Amino acid sequence: MADPGATMRLDRFLWWARITKTRGAAQQLAEGGHLRLDGRRIDRAHALVRIGSVIGFFRGGRVRIVRVEALPRRRGPASEAAMLVTELANDSQQGATELTPAKAGHSESGEDPREHLP
Q: How many CB atoms lie within 10 A of CB 61?
């Protein structure tokens, strides 16, 4: 069983969990200020993730919210990575339409949908 107090860098977790394709992309996502970790806006790649952490982010025209179920020991195959997180919310799962690039940053009310991430 994993140590409940164990932590891992956010950028490394995003890459090893195959949420991003490269560690550089994970660093950009974390440092871009468009990611939330347990409800706090994150602007640094070295923020620590632990089991039970909730990560919310806007990527590819949609909002995703995932809970960390386990910390990886390596960057393994996709089947192994899929067991690391549980999808809590994904706007395409909730019946929302995918956002087009023109609408990705703004809703009809002029608000940024990323402001409503937990």
A: 14
